[in-house]
Amino acid sequence: MAMPLCSPLATDLGRWLLPIVIGLELSGLAPAAHAEATAQPEPADQFSPDSAMSREAWKERVQQARERAERARRDAAAQPREMPSPPPSPEERATDRILSDETLQSGDVIVTSKGSFVFRGRTDAGQLILQPLSPRP
Known about the structure:
This protein is an alpha+beta fold. It has a domain at 91-132. Helices cover 48% and strands 12% of the residues. It contains 3 helices and 3 strands, in the order H-H-H-E-E-E. A hairpin with a 2-residue loop joins strand 1 (109-112) and strand 2 (115-122). The longest helix has 32 residues, at 8-39. The N and C termini lie far apart (138 Å). The relative contact order is 0.04. The mean pLDDT is 77.
């Protein structure tokens, strides 16, 4: 015996299921269609201000930009390039450190790259008073 193509249950199910499916589809499409309509920018918003200018005005702006770039290049080339000074040697750092030492007392012997000295005190301006040590004969 062949089965009927449409049973009474399938027909009843189709009667109440079809409107629900159609309703869901339509409710899902309506917000999407509304979103597309509101998401599209106005024709004036699609273009930047540069695209609305004439070809001659655009060429003039490009030429001005080239001239500014050329002036900046010439200005940079005219500036002398300063080579960074080499870092101070350990001896120079040690000399600077000892000459700025606030704990020096009169009679202290200081040995620098320029020779040996006896510390005698400080001037009112804070400069060191150093007496060169004469080498032994």
